[in-house]
Amino acid sequence: MKNDFQQDFYQEEIERCRRLYRGFSDIEPFIQKTFQKVFLFLENNNREGLLDKVTLEENKVGSKFKNGESIGINPTIKTETFLSFLKELGEVVFLVNPDLKISMEKFQKYLEKFQEQAEERVNREEIIGLKNFLLEEKIIAPDMATFLFTTALSATYRFNLEDIIKKIPADLWEGGNCALCGEKPHFGMLRSEDGAKILECWLCGTQWVHTRIKCPFCSNTEQEELGFFTVEENDLCRVHFCNQCGCYYKIFDKRKIAGENLVLPVHNLASLAYDLLAKEEGFFPGSGLEWVNENEKGENDS
């Protein structure tokens, strides 16, 4: 499945989201600046060495899939370069919202402290550990932590793993987690040609077909325990939920969107109102990505 991590695709999708989602124009400048920073950073930092090289033993992939095991890659990332990436993204946040100046200064200070103590290369568990520490210390809010770390990690993985992803026999994978890295999905789409449910890894961008009536998190297939809802009669994005495990994920209906490509990370940012509603309804992101804070309320709340 196509996974071209190219700036033009992202720019086109940002412009399209402006037309598709009410309220997106308010955050569009922030999204524009973010992805401009992402692609400038990646352009200035050669892909060689940023992410440890990943190789696939293709003869073993099929057997792992048959046993229900993802490939489970976990390459190391060059610590200094990745932390500089996080700092630059933090600067974008500050430019858009100067009120966060103190938080961003503390954030960057802790990144420097982490770099002093860390090895030259770290894996994503260590990076996520840093994120969790910042949350525990209340240095940054959960939504901002998710945004910064998810954006930086995803860009690093997607930019470096395009060629590897094209070699994965995704048609053999039926799991609820990513066939390549093992992460749980936060979003997916309904394929335009046949309406098949396609899940996409938020981290590396791998896509795979998943059973329509099945929870990717607990494998529940009881139809009466599964459902979805939309926001403001806009059924472009559906929030799918499972009453058995209490988790949700978002599905975008490509049949309702003209064009060959669909850049789901952009649609995810454009539809955070759906995450908020899911939280208000008592559901939790199966991906573990908290895009809204505890104190946030919908427009209809007092």
Summarize the structure.
With 302 residues, the protein is an alpha+beta fold. 44% of the residues lie in helices and 13% in strands.
Please give a structural write-up:
With 302 residues, the protein is an alpha+beta fold. It has two domains: 7-165, no CATH class; 170-285, FdhE-like fold (Alpha-Beta Complex). The protein has nine helices and nine strands. It has helices at 7-20, 24-44, 58-66, 79-96, 101-117, 124-136, 142-165, 264-270, 272-280; strands at residues 77-78, 121-122, 187-190, 197-200, 207-209, 226-231, 234-242, 247-253, 284-285. The strands form two sheets. Strands 3, 4, 5, 6, 7, 8 and 9 form a seven-stranded mixed sheet that branches. Strands 1-2 form a two-stranded antiparallel sheet. Strand 6 and strand 7 (234-242) form a beta hairpin. Helix 1 (7-20) packs antiparallel against helix 2 (24-44), helix 4 runs antiparallel to helix 5 (101-117) and helix 4 (79-96) packs across helix 7 (142-165). The termini are far apart. The model has no long low-confidence stretch (mean pLDDT 91).
